[in-house]
């Protein structure tokens, strides 16, 4: 399967480039998050799922962060994983996190790491974002290195993969100095050609520098809707998983809410527990064109949160 963005909504990379929150800067104290392990952090939710719900209603998540994060908080969520393009955007969102009592244990930042000069610029920008995140005590930065072209079936050369792995390791080492973890994230494009990009990013980097954000459904979808492939990856790299992006489908179609479906999440909990791994949990139950349409974003995320507390109860107690 070649990479294809959901028809219904913006592709994550496109939406990240469009982010432009318009609030004043502010300072927060999130020391409690800094003193906790990922398994003790509250269940978080990524920005992207809300973007898809807003888009379905003809609204733009980024138009008014006060309204957007107000709805986010009204769903009972207490932790937020936004995406940032640059350091300036960090200060703009902090006052709203304070207003709605939201923590920010992790954030999502795109990077371009397969060409040396571009990688240098990308690392510099990402480290500036990391420094700007200090007041929020963010501990995980999730990055998905850009492909050659979003929506294209063209894959990187061995030389480009080598440069990307070196850059990823360098970035992770720098974040480690700042008390942060770098979590490598993928979609389905990285699973092409025997998953050589996915595997090389983990085999050619130091586990001390590069962890894994397992986007459960993208790995499932990218491997041809295969739970065998998903759980093989857990066997191979489970101890490097520090964060899960959580989504469910039925018959391959993303559902409005997290629950029973194609992926056996209780089995995933058991598999990671056997490895003594308790990752940070991030809801990302996004919509696509064929998703059911029975509820709004607040209703759906309330249901997601309630189900997540049941499925992951072993880790949350």
Give a description of the structure.
This protein has 317 residues and is of the alpha/beta class. The chain has one domain: Alpha-Beta Barrel (TIM Barrel), CATH 3.20.20.150. It contains 13 helices and 11 strands. The strands form 2 sheets. A 9-stranded parallel beta sheet has the order 2-1-11-8-7-6-5-4-3. Strands 9-10 form a two-stranded antiparallel ribbon. It is globular and about 45 Å long. It comes from Dyadobacter helix. It is an enzyme of class 4 (lyase).
Note the main attributes of this structure.
317 residues; alpha/beta; TIM Barrel; nine-stranded parallel beta sheet; two-stranded antiparallel ribbon; disordered N terminus
Structural category is: alpha/beta
Spatially, the strands of the biggest sheet line up as 2-1-11-8-7-6-5-4-3
* Low confidence ranges: 1-11, 13-29
The end-to-end distance, rounded to whole angstroms, is: 39 Å
Radius of gyration: 18 Å
Q: Classify the fold: give the CATH topology.
A: TIM Barrel
The portion of residues assigned to helices is 40-55%
Described by the principal axes of the CA atoms, the overall outline is globular
**Name given to the CATH homologous superfamily:** Divalent-metal-dependent TIM barrel enzymes
Count of separate structural domains: 1
Quick summary:
It comes from Dyadobacter helix. Residues 73-289 form the Xylose isomerase-like TIM barrel domain. This protein has 317 residues and is an alpha/beta fold.
């Amino acid at each position: 399967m070649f990479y294809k963005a959901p028809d219904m909504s913006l592709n994550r990379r496109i939406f990240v480039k469009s982010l432009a929150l318009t609030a004043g800067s502010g300072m927060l104290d999130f020391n409690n998050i800094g003193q906790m392990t990922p398994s003790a952090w509250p269940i978080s939710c990524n920005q992207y799922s809300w973007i898809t719900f807003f888009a379905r209603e003809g609204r733009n998540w980024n138009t008014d962060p006060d309204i957007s994060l107000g709805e986010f908080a009204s769903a009972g969520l207490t932790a937020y994983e936004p995406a940032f393009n640059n350091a300036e955007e960090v200060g703009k969102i902090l006052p709203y996190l304070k207003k709605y009592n939201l923590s920010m244990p992790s954030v999502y930042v795109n990077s371009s790491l397969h060409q040396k000069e571009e990688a240098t610029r990308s690392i510099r920008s990402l480290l500036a974002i990391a420094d700007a995140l200090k007041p929020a005590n963010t501990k995980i930065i999730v990055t998905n290195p850009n492909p050659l072209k979003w929506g294209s079936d063209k894959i990187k050369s061995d030389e480009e993969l080598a440069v990307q792995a070196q850059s990823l390791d360098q970035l992770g080492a720098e974040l480690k100095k700042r008390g942060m973890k770098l979590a490598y994230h993928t979609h389905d494009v990285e699973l092409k050609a025997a998953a050589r990009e996915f595997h090389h990013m983990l085999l050619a980097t130091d586990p001390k520098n590069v962890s894994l954000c397992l986007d459960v459904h993208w790995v499932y979808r990218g491997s041809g809707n295969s739970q065998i492939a998903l759980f093989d990856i857990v066997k191979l790299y489970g101890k490097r998983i520090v964060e899960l992006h959580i989504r469910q489908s039925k018959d391959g179609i993303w559902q409005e809410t997290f629950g029973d479906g194609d992926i056996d999440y209780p089995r995933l909990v058991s598999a990671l527990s056997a490895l003594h791994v308790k990752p940070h949990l991030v809801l990302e139950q996004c919509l696509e064109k064929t998703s059911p349409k029975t509820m709004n974003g607040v209703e759906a995320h309330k249901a997601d949160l309630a189900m997540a507390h049941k499925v992951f109860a072993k880790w949350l107690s």
